[in-house]
Here is the input.
Amino acid sequence: MFFEFSGAYEVDTKTQIKNFIEAIYDWFKKEPLKEIEDWTDAFNFLKRTIDTEIAKSEHKGKVSLFFDEVPWIDKSNKNGFLSALGHFWNTYCQKRKSFFVILCGSNASWIKNKILKDSNGPLHNRVTHQIAMKPFDLQETREYLLHEKGYDLDSRKVVETYMVFGGVAKYLSYLDPKKTIEENVDALYFNIHGLMYSEYDEVFKSLFEDKAGIHKKIIDALSLKNSGYTIAEISKMTGEKVGRKLTSMIDELVMCGFISGVNKYGNLKKGTKYMISDPHSIFHNKWVKHYSKNEIANLKKDYWNDVVLSQRYAIWAGFMFETVLMINLPIYLKARGIQGVVKGAYYWNYKDSTNSGNGAQVDLVVEYANGIYDIIECKYYNDEFQISADYAKKLKNKLVQFRTHGLNGRKKSELKLVMLTTYGCKKNREYNGLNISADITLEDLINKR
Here is the structure.
């Protein structure tokens, strides 16, 4: 036996309750015999309806009650939804082992604060399972595009699609397989009537309401630098003081999947940088938000197709490739195939105060429990990547500087240089002289199981 109700965005309590009663009718064809005035009445009506249905059909199986977009129903619990739901669960559902109540909401921070962590709330210590509904990873995105949308794309095109939409199933569902990916991007973003044209603003408004402007200000700041900023730097750029308010907003953005914190290796307490981990937000801030409606309306029909052929897009895609890797780290580890417990993934850099040119920056460091470190170099090219003599010298310097200043000269640790490229590296003299531990391609990353 099943019942589903979804909260409506920006409607009053009276309308929410009307929708709730209508949902009961949709599932059970039952009308209330008296006026439903509040959420307590509404849940009492649901309880009596379920009891009647169980008795009538002699139902012996499970009863599943699914409440979607719970944060929209009664955001501050001023109208008693959570209190009524808590009473409904405590006095009715919990006594029946076959009852399952599932609460779902896209505002992860609200779910955390009002349901999971609110020690004074009506649902405190009532949660039995938590399921984080994350976006598709690269492999799942490829499978969706292939099997659900009918696309036949190579690995590079899958990654470039991911750079725009991320793994958000709703966004990917908008793709028209009769059009190329570039044509879809033009139709969805660079068209004032496109389904994705105003999505960015609407998402922030629906999740954070009156605080949406400040949350977007944080994202705006982070979009200026691919390697991210510390809390102190975010404070300076946004004008928000370092304190509970700013920390809370950053935590909310992390919970909702917009940003993530990455530590600097060797400086875990003070070296945390926050980076945008939502490709759609990065794409919007880089390519969409700077255009007014009039400018969007006057863009040429195949605007995005021209952009992807430009040098500025190639530079952007190179940086985005590193972000895509961070988001899909579990897939990298599968492709890497190394046996060992992962202790963490970090950024690392070293600035040489003597200006001798011996500074270094590592795209990503993966530390394993057995003293092994992957030093990962990401290169996004449209062909095999060719390592030049000068570039080989830089790679050797990175290993030396990381061992010297990152590991403080520890000799027992083992450094493994990993090249992660679009189509692999050309096997020339420089490549053979570097002792590269793994040469991972996009095909390895997306299709490795």
Observations:
- The chain has a mean pLDDT of 91.
- The domain at 136-327 is CATH 1.10.10 (Arc Repressor Mutant, subunit A).
- The beta strands are 2-6, 63-68, 99-103, 259-262, 273-276, 342-350, 360-368, 372-379, 414-421, 438-440.
- The longest helix spans residues 39-57.
